[in-house]
Design goal:
Blueprint lengths: L12 E5 L6 H12 L2 E4 L6 H8 L6 H20 L4 E4 L5 H8 L15 E7 L2 H13 L10 H7 L9 E4 L4 H12 L11
Parallel strand pairs: 1-3, 1-4, 2-3, 4-5
Helix pairs in contact: 1-7, 3-4
Length: about 200
């Protein structure tokens, strides 16, 4: 918004991240509903080619991921620039992928994690728990990602302690995770909705 001063309550983007099957979409949708803000499901931004590749059990390359992450970044930036909070469900498994998303905050300087308006919460559980979840939703026809790709995602997952990413046990209730996320980010949220 050229020509205007800083927003009184700039928006915050909270990315619920982790491997496929960890519960990102459920937690992110619940958090967005609790905050009364937009919810972005990253899977909706994948190209048909990406979805077809993954459904065949072929892991995505960085060349596949980059345009997908850039389109997500643009969607996040649009909301932040409007002073809105937004919750995103996205794997964001590596630092280089998270840096693309952090660039949605126009004032972000690489490495300045604490002042960035894009925050991350990583849901983690054992491979056994996630494999069972992925098999169940595959049987139910609820997702294109087969359980055979879980190990490739676990291999990619990297979190640097300096990033300040909150790690949450994905086996606790989604309600608890949502309450904890609201409490953690309360001071940074643009939302004025009363918190529970």
């Amino acid at each position: 918004m050229a020509g205007t001063g800083p927003l009184a309550h700039p928006g915050l983007a909270v990315v619920i991240m982790g491997v496929s099957g960890c519960g990102k979409s459920t937690v992110a949708a619940m958090l967005a509903e609790a905050l009364g803000c937009s919810f972005i499901e990253a899977d909706d931004y994948h190209s048909q080619a990406n979805k077809a590749k993954m459904s065949k059990g072929i892991p995505l390359s960085d060349a596949d991921r980059t345009p997908w992450l850039e389109s997500l970044r643009d969607a996040i930036q649009e909301r932040l620039d409007s002073g809105e909070d937004v919750v995103i469900s996205c794997s964001a498994l590596q630092l280089k992928y998270r840096e693309i998303l952090r660039a949605a905050d126009c004032s972000y300087k690489p490495g300045a994690y604490t002042t960035c308006r894009v925050k991350f919460v990583c849901l983690k559980a054992s491979a056994e728990v996630i494999t069972e979840r992925m098999k169940r939703r595959s049987r139910e026809g609820k997702h294109f990602m087969p359980a055979s790709l879980l190990q490739s995602q676990l291999n990619l997952l990297q979190i640097d302690a300096a990033e300040g990413i909150t790690e949450v046990d994905a086996t606790v209730s989604a309600d608890t995770t949502v309450r904890d996320a609201i409490a953690q980010f309360r001071e940074e949220l643009a939302s004025t909705i009363p918190f529970f």
